[in-house]
Amino acid sequence: MERDELECFLLLAEELHFGRTADRMRLSRARVSQLVQRLERRVGAPLFTRTSRRVALTSLGRQLRADLEPHYRAIEAALERAAATARGIDTVLHVGFANPLTGEIVMRATEALRVSHPGLAVEICEVPLADPYGQLREGEFDVQITELPVREEDLGAGPTLLVEERALAIGSAHPLAVRESVSLEDLADVPLLTIAGNVPDYWLEHHVPAHTPSGRPIARGPGVTNMQEALMLVAGGQGALLVPAHAATYYARPGVAYVPFADAEPTGYGLVWRAGDATGAMETFAAMAREIARDMTRGHSRRAATGALEGDRERPPTPRTGAGPSDADHLHQGSIRAHPAVVPR
């Protein structure tokens, strides 16, 4: 039995009127008659009695309707559930973010999905600095946007969304604080705060390298578990911390200077999830996050280009301490860009 025959039969059994059935199916009356006749030939007996005044089901028609209708409704419901899952709707997605920049991507994606996929609810929460993958493994997050690289066998990672330059957070009284930029070799002259917690060795080396590129040892300072604790120690002269460039805006505070690196590899950000647990909702969120990251990259590029054309040398110098949220665009110029090899798709 063809689906259009089945649908036509059930609608006509409900309406008992060829005109209304044709309107609901958006077909002509002649086409509805053809479908009914084709089904009756398939069954081998009339399913409806037709007069100039009324249409009625035969006893065989009533029996067929009773047998078919529950199965047809179940098939329709199953198809709708599958389509809903594929579109990522009627689902709550728990998303983690590693820092304010990734949080901004998540928030913008959430707002956009509220319009395009109103059935997809997104709940967000910050990923702990001292346990970058624990909550994801335990199922508290479905997916998170975090710093790359990720080299966990049980976790999957998507393409790089964007990359950002890095800076050194250091006490404003330290001699390096007045420099226009620092190099990785300068880290031999200041202890780095370490991250205390459940962190992989490669992740710790990315944030707290043990040696400079030439092999000089880098001293380790006190261990910290969150950013506010780290900045208190930095301001107190207990050590320095490698941070993404946006920290100068989001974590501005007295006693802490942010000095850009001249030679450090930028930090990349990407989506991470439990391997094998990808869902339609996650794919929907990932597509929106890529679009948001692309827009943010383009926006920063446009502002940087405009500033160059207008003559950046005429602007006041960028503050490295005490900058407020209004300085975000200026501090970010040139610091955020698309990955050269893996551009957001």
General description of the model:
With 345 residues, the chain is of the alpha/beta class. The protein contains eleven helices and 13 strands. A six-stranded mixed sheet has the order 4-3-5-12-6-13, with helices on one face. Strands 10-7-11 form a three-stranded antiparallel sheet. It has a two-stranded antiparallel sheet with strand order 1-2. Helix 7 links the parallel strand 8 (192-195) and strand 9. Helix 2 (18-25) packs across helix 3 (29-43). It is rod-shaped. The relative contact order is 0.14. Mean pLDDT is 85; it is low at 308-334 and 338-345.
How helix-rich are the residues, as a percent range? 40-55%
Largest sheet: 6 strands, mixed
Structural class: alpha/beta
Helix and strand pattern? HHHEEHEHEHEEEEHEHEHEEHHE
Strands of the widest sheet, in order across it, are 4-3-5-12-6-13
Rg calculated over all Cα atoms: 31 Å
Strand portion: 15-25%
Chart the SSEs and their pairings.
Elements: H1 3-15, H2 18-25, H3 29-43, E1 48-50, E2 55-57, H4 59-87, E3 91-97, H5 100-116, E4 120-126, H6 134-137, E5 143-148, E6 155-164, E7 166-171, E8 192-195, H7 201-207, E9 220-224, H8 227-235, E10 241-244, H9 247-250, E11 256-260, E12 267-274, H10 280-310, H11 328-332, E13 336-337
Helix pairs in contact: 1-2, 1-3, 1-4, 2-3, 5-10
